[in-house]
């Protein structure tokens, strides 16, 4: 039985604008990853006598942790007409939790729940970009009291620490306010400061002494650091089938930078950055700061469980720099950075990293090796 509790629910404002594009979606989430199944759904599929139940049982046959799409290709429940066979046969309630809820996301801290949208969904990424002109850069939350059904994730019970996390979040948002960040140098400085403060706070909480950090450029990353990241299994040939758009974006990187020496590559990167910041139709430092901020907002409360202040900053810095790189590559290839183009970049990049700890972990490791 599911427990229900009364709590404060904070919802990012563009959340309510979401509704799935279904068959019309240009980057359908029924392709390209493994869809984990919750126990209730597995039990439901086992009991279901109709052909769709049999199909679901065959699809999860032999998987250690029940999941659809073990080869990261089309979901086996997707019909050739582009519709989900489970939903067609038995309605939305029959879907596994992952499919029913995605791309809605939440952090449940008990005394409040915070709801955001996951930008690995291209439509959510579009709504996020379109909200840039809204008050507070579209990153404001509305607050209400309501019932929340799901149990709180994690088991930390330290109200004082949670209070400190809430304060820290306000401090971070303040330091990231657009008027404080006129250019790339200022953004770099703020990110480094947040990382350094985060490391100190983490050391205090965990009673550690990890020593200082090397002052490397955290925005934009150097071509050497980006190249190290691109040389991990972030890129692999299999992307051609599992995530063709990301595959093409990675190939653009290799075509542009592989033939160059480090010095030539750094020069080319700088030229592209100058074009990006000078162009009247290109996004600017405000958009990049906003993306970094949204990445931080979404993961901030995970620190309640692992005390990894620094890791949250590193993650957001990696996401910011990788998305920026792919935007520069689009510019290099002569494509305009329209909302559509940028939403596609964000969605397929996030699809590869936000739900894949191995891939994200290996990117963070490259960064860590340079500055911690
Ligand atoms: S990616 Fe988003 S809009 Fe597209 S099918 Fe999935 S949930 Fe719907």
DSSP strand count: 6
**The number of domains:** 3
β-strand percent reads 5-15%
**Tally of DSSP helical segments:** 16
- Give the termini separation: 46 Å
State the strand order across the main sheet. Answer: 4-5-1-6
Bound molecules: iron/sulfur cluster
Return the average pLDDT rounded to an integer: 93
Order of helices and strands: EEHHEHHEEHEHHHHHHHHHHH
Helix content: 40-55%
The dominant shape is globular
Given as residue ranges, the uncertain stretches (5+ residues, pLDDT < 50) are none
Q: Which structural class do you get from the secondary structure elements?
A: alpha+beta
Largest β-sheet summary = 4 strands, mixed
Computed Rg: 21 Å
Key words describing this protein structure:
372 residues; alpha+beta; two-stranded antiparallel ribbon; 3 domains; binds iron/sulfur cluster; 16 helices; four-stranded mixed sheet
Protein architecture, described:
The chain has 372 residues and is α+β, with helices and mostly antiparallel strands. The protein folds into 3 domains: 5-18 and 102-148, no CATH class; 30-98, no CATH class; 159-371, no CATH class. It is 52% helix and 8% strand. The protein is built from 16 helices and 6 strands. The chain has helices spanning 39-47, 51-60, 85-90, 97-101, 122-130, 159-175, 184-206, 223-230, 239-242, 244-257, 262-278, 285-299, 303-306, 309-332, 339-353, 357-371; strands at residues 5-12, 35-36, 67-68, 104-108, 112-117, 141-148. The strands form 2 sheets. A 4-stranded mixed β-sheet has the order 4-5-1-6. α7 runs antiparallel to α14 (309-332). The longest helix has 24 residues, at 309-332. It starts with a strand and ends with a helix. 33% of the residues are buried. Bound molecules: iron/sulfur cluster. Iron/sulfur cluster binds next to α5.
